[in-house]
């Protein structure tokens, strides 16, 4: 084992010597006080008092300092030494927790085997399991009383925690068996009884301040419950949700992040497995159970983040994991309208938490900035998933671009970088889907692939997004400096304007003349836009460069595409108009430079 550094060794020795000195000083003061009290109370032998001598009041014994109530007054508490890995692998602990796990598995196997072999009858099996669980809890209580005064990690306490864990887990599993296997109680009554058992076990852990007991009750019940139910159904999800609800007050009160994870992760995993299993069956109750699991997970994550800021990372992890079953349950278990409602409910829940933490003065600052940002990001993801689930695939681009505009307006008004990032992501995905759907490049290259009204609307939305998002970035103060981003924005703007122009012309006349007219207008609009940028760029280099690039693109289109595609009058009109506009702009630009 490596020895501590020389400086650390000297500090430890100095601390121990200081502590010994404090203890000796304290013992010396006690001995002096006791000796003085005995001297005053008992006079010296042979000394006779005069009959009429005045009584001299005896001096009261010296009062002990207030700090004497403490074991070692004036001694500052030493920092706790980090626990070594070997300390948790002591034979007593290994034997105690290993015995608890084996005993619990034995109870589970006994219940399963008794059902398979039909031993003693269902009622006797349930009653016997309850009696065994009660005896184990009583033994844990007795062991804890017997080990009073021991430290938390001592063998007696570990044995008490292991016995109590086994008892409460066995009682919880007995309730699960009585509900799912035998049907002695209805589902609501079984869930309520399971909640009471979980609350009792975790309340005992809170009273004993025993995190191992709390973790043992939750994990053992969550791990063994699927062995009893044997199906990932709604009842299993419901029982695990109750475990999470019962653990929430204790983990918030004591600040045990590991308990939050132990109670939250099994619920998410069970909900995901139940959703995949239930895709082959029509079970509305399973949808309700998954929705309840999502609601409880998100709310408990928010409460954990607000009440325990030091557990912020744990709360964010729970927040990210909690809504995932709803993302899967909607497409697999429901039709499109109902799946949209489930996704909209999840989105509304996340948006409500974000809005309360952002705008309500009473709760502003209650949640950390990181957690609030994570809530907003999950709300954006939930909204996107809801859009893809509820809307037909032919309208995905239009729907995402509409959401991008809404978020862009929000970013402009709130001056929020996070909202602007969400709007940019929506716009990017909307543009990529538009290229494959509502506004394809093929509609601009060949006649016959008319986009119609969806193409017109999608093109206008692309133009609006390409204008609004840079304006919001300027207002927020996050103006991108990369030429690549500005070039991508310009391409989106040009494609949107061209698609909208083509769709409008083809809606008026879906003929080759309409197609050629659209290309003439597209070329002239590019030339006009380039000249506007040049005129505005007399004093601004970036606008001047953008105008020159657009002029080059317009001339390239005119010579490479329009010259080969247009014919007759259309070709003459395009070249004449473009040339005259360029000549007029050139003379105007020259006068501006001389001014």
From TrEMBL:
Keyword Transmembrane helix part of the UniProt annotation: yes
Transmembrane domains' residue ranges: 94-116, 122-143, 155-178, 184-205, 212-228, 234-252, 259-279, 285-303, 315-334, 340-359, 371-390, 396-414, 426-446, 452-472, 484-509, 515-535, 547-566, 572-590
Biased composition (Low complexity): 46-56
Any single Pfam family the record assigns to this protein: DUF2339
InterPro entries: DUF2339_TM
Keywords associated with the record: Membrane, Transmembrane, Transmembrane helix
UniProt cross-references to PANTHER family, sorted A to Z: BLL2549 PROTEIN
Name this polypeptide is given: Putative membrane protein
């Amino acid at each position: 084992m490596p020895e501590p550094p020389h400086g650390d060794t000297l500090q430890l020795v100095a601390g121990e010597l200081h502590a010994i000195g404090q203890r000796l000083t304290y013992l010396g003061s006690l001995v002096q006080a006791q000796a003085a009290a005995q001297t005053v109370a008992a006079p010296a032998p042979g000394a006779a008092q005069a009959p009429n001598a005045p009584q001299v009041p005896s001096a009261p014994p010296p009062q002990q300092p207030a700090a004497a109530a403490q074991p070692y007054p004036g001694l500052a508490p030493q920092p706790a030494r980090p626990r070594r890995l070997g300390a948790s692998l002591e034979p007593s602990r290994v034997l105690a927790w290993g015995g608890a796990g084996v005993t619990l598995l034995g109870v589970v196997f006994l219940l399963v085997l008794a059902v398979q072999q039909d031993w003693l009858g269902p009622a006797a099996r349930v009653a016997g399991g309850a009696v065994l669980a009660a005896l184990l809890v009583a033994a844990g209580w007795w062991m804890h009383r017997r080990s009073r005064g021991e430290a938390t990690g001592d063998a007696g306490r570990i044995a008490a925690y292991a016995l109590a864990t086994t008892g409460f887990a066995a009682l919880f599993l007995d309730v699960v068996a009585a509900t799912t296997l035998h049907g002695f109680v209805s589902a609501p009554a079984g869930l309520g009884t399971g909640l009471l058992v979980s609350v009792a076990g975790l309340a005992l852990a809170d009273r004993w301040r025993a995190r191992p007991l709390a973790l043992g009750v939750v994990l053992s019940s969550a791990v063994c419950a699927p062995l009893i139910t044997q199906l990932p159904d709604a009842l299993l999800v419901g029982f695990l949700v109750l475990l999470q609800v019962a653990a929430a007050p204790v983990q918030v009160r004591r600040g045990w992040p590991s308990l939050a994870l132990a109670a939250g992760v099994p619920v998410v995993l069970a909900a995901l497995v139940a959703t995949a299993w239930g895709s082959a069956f029509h079970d509305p109750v399973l949808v309700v159970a998954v929705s309840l699991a999502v609601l409880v997970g998100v709310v408990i994550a928010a409460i954990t983040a607000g009440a325990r800021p030091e557990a912020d990372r744990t709360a964010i992890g729970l927040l990210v994991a909690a809504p995932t079953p709803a993302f899967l349950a909607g497409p697999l278990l429901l039709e499109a309208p109902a799946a949209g409602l489930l996704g909209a409910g999840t989105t509304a829940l996340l948006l409500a938490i974000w809005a309360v933490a952002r705008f309500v003065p009473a709760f502003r600052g209650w949640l950390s900035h990181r957690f609030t940002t994570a809530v907003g990001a999950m709300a954006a993801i939930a909204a996107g998933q809801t859009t893809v689930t509820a809307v037909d695939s032919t309208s995905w681009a239009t729907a995402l671009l509409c959401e991008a505009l809404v978020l862009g307006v929000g970013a402009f008004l709130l001056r929020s970088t996070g909202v602007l990032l969400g709007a940019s992501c929506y716009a990017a995905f909307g543009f990529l889907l538009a290229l494959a759907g509502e506004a394809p490049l093929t509609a601009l290259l060949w006649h016959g692939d008319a986009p119609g009204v969806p193409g017109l609307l999608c093109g206008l939305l692309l133009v609006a997004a390409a204008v609004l998002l840079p304006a919001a970035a300027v207002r927020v103060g996050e103006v991108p400096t990369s030429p690549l981003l500005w070039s991508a924005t310009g391409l989106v703007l040009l494609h949107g304007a061209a698609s909208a122009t083509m769709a409008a012309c083809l809606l008026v006349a879906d003929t080759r003349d309409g197609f050629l007219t659209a290309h003439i207008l597209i070329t002239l609009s590019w030339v006009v836009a380039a000249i506007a940028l040049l005129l505005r760029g007399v004093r601004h280099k970036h606008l001047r460069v953008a105008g020159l690039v657009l002029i080059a693109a317009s001339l390239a289109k005119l010579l490479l595409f329009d010259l080969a595609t247009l014919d007759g009058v259309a070709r003459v009109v395009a070249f004449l108009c473009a040339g005259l506009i360029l000549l007029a702009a050139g003379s105007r630009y020259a006068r501006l430079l001389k001014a």
